[in-house]
Design a protein that fits this description.
Elements lengths: L2 E8 L2 E8 L6 E7 L10 H9 L3 E5 L15 H18 L6 E11 L1 H10 L8 E5 L5 H5 L2 H9 L6 H14 L13 E6 L7 H14 L6 E6 L8 H15 L2
Amino acid sequence: MDFVLSNINKEGISLIEIYPAGTVGKMPMVILFHGYLGQKEFVMAQAYNLARHGFFVVFPDAYNHGERNSGQTPDFIESVLKTTEEINTLIDCYENDDRVDISRVGIAGYSMGGCIVFNYLAGDDKRVKAAVPVIATPDWISIISIDMVQVRLKSIGIAKSDAEMEEYIRMAERLQPLNRFSAMKDIPMLILNGDVDPIIPIENVREFYKQLRELYTRKEDIKLIEYKETGHTDTIQMNMELAGWFKKYLKP
C-alpha cells in the first residue's frame, strides 16, 4: 500500500498528514497527539498504522513542542491547555478539503497526548465522534504527586522549589479535566493503560472509568482495557485496539 505523506503548517501549527494514496471519496480523519517533550515524528509509526486502515491522519506538534518549541522547556499544563484550544481550529482547516469528512473525526493521544484528549472531551465545543486516550489520565494530581515526576519537573525547571511545586499542584488541581468529567459522557471512548505504569496510577484511572461509565447512555460506548505487566509505553496490541475503535465509530 502506498501513502501520501506531507509535512506542512496550518494556522501556525506544524503537522504531518498521512493517508492512503489513490483513495476515492472523503476519508474519516484522526488527529493524533504525541507525549510530553516529544514531537510529531514520535507517533509516525502509529499514524502509519491508522492510515493503513483508511484514515486521513493528522499529527501535529503540541504547543511549544517540536518545530514550535520556543527554546524553553515546555510547561506540561500550558502545553495541554493550549493544544486543546487548537483542536477545533485544526478541524476547521479541513472543512473544505475534498479528502476529508469532518463529520467523522476522532482524536487519540499518548501520555500527554492522551491528557490533551481528556481535556478536550471535558470541554463544551466537541466536534469528534470517538476518542482514544492511551497511557493517560484526566487526574493530573495523580501524576504530579508521584515523587519521580516531581524530581523530573524540578530538574527541567518547571517547578524549581518545593514552594513552586506546591503552587503547580494547586494549579493542576484547579484545571484538571477530572473536575469536569461528566462533560465527557456519551462520546465513544476507549481508554488504554498499562497496569504497572509508574507515571499513570491505574487505580485512579479505574475509579474515573467506573464513575464516568455510570453516566453513559450506551455502556458499550466506553471501555477500559488494562494491559498486564505494561508500564508507561504503548504496545502493538494497544494500537490494534485503537484502530479497531475508530473503524467501529468513524467508518460508514
